[in-house]
Amino acid sequence: MLVKKAVSLLGCAVVIGAGALAVAPTAYAKSGFPTYTCDHIDFKTGSDILATGHCVATNGAPKEGAYRGDLILDRDRGISLICRTGIALTPATVTGFDCT
Q: What is the pTM of this model?
């Protein structure tokens, strides 16, 4: 599934797949979309990220181990990303791959 996202510090719009569904990431979290909330997001090479600090898994996101599917990594300072896969080791870290 093609995932695209426009990010701003004031708000985010997400477009998912061919259906062109535009929804703010916080709306996904409130609707039960698996979510990780961490203190900081560091951008690594390409589209990979490392989220650290008091990471909390909600809405069915695994607390430890690999995850598949589009999961939001939501920074408490207003930055939200959608990642296709990653590895969670909450509460210390969540690594995201192929994030937009």
A: 0.68
